[in-house]
């Protein structure tokens, strides 16, 4: 099929749904603000209806093609800060909305999941399952990553939790959810087009603290590959974000933690306490005392506190100062470093393993990630790639502070059979009671060029404008209500 003809829609990427969390727009709340994840929110219902109508329109343009594969690009479950039962209930509502029993099968029952920092626990469980399943082959240790390319001979690891939740629907009895971590890639050897996906936490220095510690204490080089990044920092991700939701009253609530990270003084206190906890973790796991001397006479405790300050603390402050920016200068530097270094190395290895000529044919590359809760599209020059990389951010579905910023919002990213990419910009936080209407766009700002998927998506959205307006109204109302509740909570006098 030539580029002058439409290509079948193949993948739809969503991230940062934070299902089960009270601060997610997809979680239902009663009139008093009490969350009830067992019921779909008005925003979720409207989103599913409009999305299904739009996908049906796109599929009708290329009949006879398989259903669209859903790619859940991390922080889909709010496992880090919400109880397991609530996240599971939220996921089930999400599946019921996108896969209604009485509707056409628009989405494949075989889902791909790339865990993030809030649902990193899904990867830990998948690691354990893969190890148990391979005991007869005497595996050396837990795997640190899965193969990059979706069509690799080694299949992804199953997520038993998400699979069983999907199969609770009788019409989804054969459903599967497969874990791909930390990156997922698609490659067309005929055209050289490539799409790379990652949740985004390893583009954030907050989640690579242990690698920074290794470099500072033992003068080790930065991690060169994704397996090393995960091996060094995965336990830190677990410790900081991935399972606090199950800690009961001793865990940190989502709103409290986010409010802390958005307050300069509180962030300082938090980083100091987190540093103390990390020192205790090093003592328990590696036998390293906090008083152990390192470089220039600094103790491990002093060094780790400093690292916390320049990662968690500085990241929090930079986010507060960058409300009008979709990504900061430091964020761009970290993004380029990840793309040019560990991810490019994984891609090269995967392409060389595929065929001797595959790596030489690498052409237009797209990178899709979330994590920042700020959707955007832009082209970015990255060393090692033959042309600028088109970057798409899927944003997030949360209102986690009493004031809203126009840069925050959510998008879905679509991929067709020819690996064309388009962004379905769903919403940004409302300004003066209004949200930007749902629309289609792409990242071809530096090199404007035809994009049939973007054009087809734009036409489909316009054809379903009434349904998307219902969604925008629901999302706007939910966002403003949640912000008002947070503002009331912020100014509520503390009980003595």
Task: Write a brief structural summary.
It is built from 12 helices and 15 strands.
Key terms for this structure?
alpha/beta, 15 strands, about 500 residues, 2 domains, eight-stranded mixed beta sheet
Task: Describe this protein's structure.
There is one protein chain. By secondary structure, the protein is α/β, with parallel strands linked by helices. It has 2 domains: 9-204 and 329-491, no CATH class; 206-222 and 232-321, no CATH class. It is 41% helix and 15% strand. It is built from 12 helices and 15 strands. It has helices at 42-61, 84-98, 120-133, 160-167, 209-218, 226-242, 254-261, 264-286, 300-321, 329-354, 452-463, 465-491, and strands at residues 9-14, 27-29, 35-40, 69-72, 110-113, 157-158, 176-179, 183-187, 194-198, 365-369, 376-380, 389-393, 409-416, 421-428, 439-441. The chain has an 8-stranded mixed beta sheet with strand order 6-7-5-4-1-13-14-15. Strands 8-9-10-12-11 form a 5-stranded mixed beta sheet, with helices on one face. The chain has a two-stranded antiparallel ribbon with strand order 2-3. Strand 8 (183-187) and strand 9 form a beta hairpin. Helix 1 (42-61) packs antiparallel against helix 12 (465-491), helix 2 packs across helix 4 and helix 5 (209-218) crosses helix 9. The longest helix has 27 residues, at 465-491. The relative contact order is 0.14. Residues 247-267 and 317-321 have low confidence and may be disordered.
């Amino acid at each position: 099929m030539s580029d002058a003809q439409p290509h079948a829609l193949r993948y739809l990427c969503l991230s940062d749904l934070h299902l089960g969390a009270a601060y997610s727009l997809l979680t239902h709340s009663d009139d008093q603000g009490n969350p009830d994840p067992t019921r779909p929110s008005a925003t979720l219902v409207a989103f599913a209806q409009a999305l299904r109508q739009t996908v049906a329109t796109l599929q009708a343009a290329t009949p006879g093609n398989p259903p669209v594969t859903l790619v859940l690009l991390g922080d889909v479950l709010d496992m880090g800060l919400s109880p397991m039962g609530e996240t599971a209930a939220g996921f089930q509502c999400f599946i019921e909305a996108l896969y209604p029993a009485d509707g056409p099968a628009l989405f494949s029952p075989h889902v791909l999941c790339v865990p993030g920092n809030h649902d990193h626990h899904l990867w830990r469980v998948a690691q354990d399952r893969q190890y148990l399943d391979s005991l007869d082959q005497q595996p050396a240790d837990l795997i640190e990553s899965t193969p990059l390319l979706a069509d690799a001979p080694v299949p992804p690891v199953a997520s038993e939790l998400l699979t069983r939740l999907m199969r609770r629907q009788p019409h989804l009895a054969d459903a599967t959810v497969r874990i791909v971590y930390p990156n997922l890639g698609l490659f067309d050897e005929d055209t050289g087009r490539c799409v790379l996906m990652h949740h985004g936490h390893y583009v954030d220095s907050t989640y690579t603290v242990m690698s920074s510690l290794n470099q500072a204490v033992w003068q080790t080089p930065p991690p060169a590959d994704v397996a090393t990044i995960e091996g060094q920092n995965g336990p830190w991700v677990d410790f900081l974000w991935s399972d606090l939701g199950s800690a009961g009253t001793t865990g940190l609530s989502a709103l409290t933690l986010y409010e802390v990270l958005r307050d300069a003084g509180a962030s300082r206190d938090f980083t100091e306490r987190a540093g103390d906890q990390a020192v205790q973790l090093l003592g328990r796991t590696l036998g390293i005392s906090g008083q152990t001397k390192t470089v220039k006479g600094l103790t491990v405790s002093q060094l780790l506190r400093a690292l916390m300050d320049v990662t968690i603390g500085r990241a929090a402050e930079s986010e507060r100062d960058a409300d009008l920016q979709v990504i900061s200068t430091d964020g761009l530097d970290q993004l380029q470093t990840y793309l040019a270094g560990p991810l490019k190395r994984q891609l090269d290895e995967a392409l060389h393993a595929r065929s001797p000529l595959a790596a030489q044919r690498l052409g237009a590359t797209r990178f899709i990630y979330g994590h920042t809760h700020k959707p955007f599209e832009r082209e970015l020059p990255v060393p090692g790639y033959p042309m600028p990389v088109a970057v798409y951010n899927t944003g997030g579905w949360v209102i986690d502070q009493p004031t809203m910023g126009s840069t925050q919002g959510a998008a879905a990213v679509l991929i067709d059979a020819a690996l064309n990419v388009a962004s379905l910009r769903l919403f940004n936080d409302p300004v003066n009671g209004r949200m930007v209407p749902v629309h289609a766009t792409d990242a071809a700002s530096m090199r404007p060029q035809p994009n049939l998927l973007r054009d087809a998506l734009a036409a489909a959205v316009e054809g379903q404008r009434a349904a998307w307006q219902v969604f925008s109204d629901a999302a706007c109302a939910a966002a403003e209500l949640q912000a008002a509740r947070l503002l009331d909570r912020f100014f509520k006098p503390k009980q003595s």
